[in-house]
Amino acid sequence: MKKSITPNQIKQNNRSLIYHYIYQNHKVSQQDISYDLRLSRPTVTANLNAMEQEGLICKSGQIDTEYVGRKAAAYSITADYRVSIGVEILKEEVKMIAVDLYGEKLDRTVYEITYEYEESYFKTVCDKILEFKDSIGAADEQLLGIGFAMQALISPDRQTVLYGEILSCTGLSIENFTRYLPYPCAFIHDADSAAVSEMWVSRELTDAFYLSLSRHLGAAIISKGEILTGKHGHNSTIEHIQLDPGGALCYCGRRGCMDTLCSLSALLRGPESPDEFFEGVRRKEPSFLERWDGFLDNLAQAVNLLHLIYDTDFILGGYLAQYLREEDLEALYERIRKLTPFAEAQDFLRISKMPRHNVTIGAALPFVQTFLNEVAGQ
User: Fold this and answer.
1) Beta partners for residue 252, in sequence order
2) Hey, what domains does the chain have and what are their CATH numbers?
3) Lowest-confidence range among 96-100, 242-246, 326-330, 344-348?
4) Phi-psi domain of 61 (left: phi exceeds 0; alpha: psi -120 through 50; beta: other)
5) Segment 178-181 long-range contacts (CB within 8 Å, at least 24 positions apart)
6) What are φ and ψ of residue 37, in 5° steps?
7) Using one digit for the tens of pLDDT, what is the confidence trace for 251-266?
8) Average pLDDT along the chain
9) Please, are residues 260 and 250 in contact by the beta-carbon 8 Å criterion?
10) How far apart are CA 355 and CA 316, in angstroms?
11) pLDDT for the residue 344
């Protein structure tokens, strides 16, 4: 027997529809809501009044109309009604960013703290997070949660580091942080975090292979709008596919892994910065061009191999993305065409739409999405 919908469910559904209509359209009038959602004016008015009293939405000026008479009041969501913090743990730094309900940056800071698997380190990081939270004026009830982006593989429940050779943090528990933080906390693999950011700014993105081309190589598979985690937590670890078994030593202990050929660490020399390297490339200096050509050769080999396995769009992200130009994509396509057995269309490589702060922002966004889902009654 089909269950009937209760009056409470109808009320919740109307509230959800109205909130998300305002969220998606940024600035709307009562008339807009009533007309587009086909809800009565009294229903819209009651919901707007209730949500305004709670602080979920606010009046934001007026909207011009074609009609004669008083201008309509405009409503927007209160973007900082709730905030979330993303934290990226690196060997020598801890990066933090706070975002609002639109995923927009409220503030960002970087602390020079050397990673140690020591209680003093965890307490210091948590003290800095609390200091950062206070600096943006966020009350305890405003903070949705704190996401920790790690250069490590994370358990499906996001509570434990399963494999963390870069930081020597295998087995690390989120409890090392939560004992000092009275907020929901969770780990996230840094490549997954970057992919989350990409999906946030590209809402139409449902299927793609995200390559994080940063100091270390990482990847995430996006399928049907979700990131695939795999059965044992090591899905998309393409950085450890061996391309040159006699090559350079990888941090995993094997030689010639993709990480040793397709990461920024493989491209740059010593203290050289990406800015310095690409200035040399754009000036067409022979020594820089030779290195760049070799890197593109290796990247083409890696992309071709992965594209043969998963025929989808490839997003070139990570720290390298902000330096890439269309001419670089052209050069990469030419190399791939020489490797693939198929007539390769020039339509599957894309440069990330969010090349900056993507890891820290992506660590914060799952808490924002959960809040929006709850407001939607999902």
Assistant:
1) none
2) 9-77 (1.10.10.10), 83-195 (3.30.420.40), 203-351 (3.30.420.40)
3) 344-348
4) left
5) 179/122, 180/122, 180/123, 180/126, 180/127, 181/126, 181/129, 181/130, 181/146
6) -95, -5
7) 999 999 999 999 999 9
8) 93
9) yes
10) 9
11) 76
